[in-house]
């Protein structure tokens, strides 16, 4: 009797080759090879969600019906553009999607992300969401916190973060600039920390693949900053038990199969998660150093769900 093979759709453009590429090629090609070894899975590659169209109850790329898949795995930039997100979210009504679109969104938005960390009791900086109408309340926070950071809610690479120490600047950036936009501002307490103790981690299938730190080329004064948005420039770091624990708790709280965290160490020695990543790096050299097989963990994510 013929076995009914599960249908798996893929969209994993190659980093450096395709503008939406995110997964480092040695890992990407090893993952694709490994997927092909599973006879019980039928693979459909290059299913670019930006090309998909919703027609009545189903989703298509040309004549291919994505809604007939059992699972759709994507690892690419651009998921948060409104059109693309609508495609992914509606696909997930019927098909298992990795990464799960709502979980991905929760992780990407710094407001919802820090809300989740706090609600799960995971150490993260104090934060506030405030509109220009309530600018007075930000003065109180400044008094309490000493220094605060104004962060773009969907920022990355450390770009666009403003460090504020005085009320005049707060009044300008929130009170004046914010009035017309009627948008809220995401503020975070600045935690004085030793940048040499900064640690990032990539977590897949509830396993830490490796820890890393950024090289001085990606550090500007008090923060990790990558103005060219290149990524990389990392060195292997062995995370402490406490750091590992924070990363695993975050992965569970967000229900993200693939995630990353940035952790800082405050002057009193306490660790805080300052950022949750939804498309973390798969640095092949670091995986060699940690000895954790990230490709097997990616396969594990799929096995758990079909
Ligand atoms: N609350 C904070 N206190 C001190 N430093 C911080 C804080 N938040 C972020 N940083 C520093 O700024 C860097 C960039 O902030 P992050 O929130 O990770 O933004 P992005 O998503 O742009 O990477 C962090 O890696 C860290 O070095
Ligand atoms: Mg970051």
**SSE-based structural type:** alpha+beta
The third-level CATH topology of the largest domain is D-amino Acid Aminotransferase, Chain A, domain 1
CATH superfamily of the largest domain: ATP-grasp fold, B domain
Question: What's the helix count?
Answer: 9
Mean pLDDT: 94
- Specify the helix fraction band: 25-40%
Distance between the termini: 21 Å
Percent range for β-strand residues: 25-35%
User: What's the order of the H and E elements?
Assistant: EHEEEEEHEHHEHEEHEEEEEEHEEHH
| Main beta sheet strand tally, sense and closure | 5 strands, antiparallel
Record field, number of beta strands: 18
The rough form would be described as: globular
Overall domain count: 3
Bound molecules: adenosine-5'-diphosphate, magnesium ion
Unreliable segments (pLDDT under 50, ≥5 consecutive)?
none
Radius of gyration: 21 Å
Q: Widest sheet: strand order?
A: 16-13-12-17-18
What is the name of the CATH architecture of the largest domain? 2-Layer Sandwich
Provide the CATH top-level class of the largest domain.
Alpha Beta
Could you describe the 3D structure shown?
This protein is of the alpha+beta class and 306 residues long. It folds into three domains: 6-98, Rossmann fold, CATH 3.40.50; 126-189, ATP-grasp fold, A domain (Dna Ligase, domain 1, 2-Layer Sandwich), CATH 3.30.1490; 193-305, 2-Layer Sandwich (D-amino Acid Aminotransferase, Chain A, domain 1), CATH 3.30.470. 32% of the residues lie in helices and 26% in strands. The chain contains nine helices and 18 strands. It has helices at 25-36, 82-91, 101-108, 110-119, 135-145, 167-181, 241-254, 284-290, 294-305, and strands at 6-11, 41-44, 53-55, 58-61, 64-65, 71-74, 96-98, 127-131, 148-150, 162-164, 184-189, 199-204, 207-214, 219-220, 223-224, 234-237, 258-265, 271-277. It has a five-stranded antiparallel sheet with strand order 16-13-12-17-18. A four-stranded parallel sheet has the order 2-1-6-7, covered by helices on one side. Helix 1 crosses helix 9 and helix 5 (135-145) runs antiparallel to helix 6. The longest helix has 15 residues, at 167-181. The protein is globular. The model has no long low-confidence stretch (mean pLDDT 94). The structure holds adenosine-5'-diphosphate (ADP) and magnesium ion. Magnesium ion binds at residues 262, 275. Residues 125, 149, 151, 155-159, 161, 188-191, 193, 198, 223-224, 262, 264, 274-275 line the site of adenosine-5'-diphosphate.
